[in-house]
Request: fold
Amino acid sequence: MESENPSGADNQQGSPPDGILQSGVTPQRLHAELLAASAIGLEAYLQGALRDATFSARHGTHRFGQSNREWLQVIADSLAILGHRSWIYREGSSRIFWILETSAKFLSLQYDPVPLVGSPFGCFYVRGYFDADGGMPREPSDRLYFQICQRDKKSLEGVVALLDTEGILCGRIHNPSRGVDPEYWRFFVRTASHQMFMERVNSWHPIKRQLMQRRMKI
Reply:
């Protein structure tokens, strides 16, 4: 449910560093972007974000788990705009961990993004995927990188194909540590494509969104 990360990379899914949400992006601005997006774009985003969710066959629901409640609210707002219900609740009284659950029928862990290659909605899918399983440095002074990690190597290949059609160059998909997890894969966006990645893919994750905005101002 929560992204696993044996390589130790920072994917910003936890609590934000001090001051990271004090300026820049606001919930109102993000919500306005969601309202302006097409239904196909929102659905593609949610299918990408689903890479960090699990499916409960017993209840027929998909469950997203995060310590960052703000991003779950983005998921909830997106679902609501599309006419689907969801609910957010805290898991356990002693944990800072939240669950969003939804029975939206269009969501599928077997979703194939290949039909989005060459379409204007491919970036929406990659945005959701990056928000779920992507990482970048928290400190503006650190060397910039963008990476996406997943156990499903085939789905990562689909993301690389989508980025390639946008002219965004990526490194090879590789295993960062076979001794820790031989089935865990990742790739980096090449340095020459960092600016294009921020402009075309961007992020609806509140923390990652602000981190990108800080980088684009430099």
User: Anything to note?
Assistant: Residues 27-217 form a domain with the Endonuclease I-creI fold (CATH 3.10.28.10). The beta strands are 53-56, 61-66, 86-90, 98-102, 134-135, 147-150, 185-188. The CA atoms of residues 48 and 129 lie 4 Å apart. The chain has seven helices and seven strands.
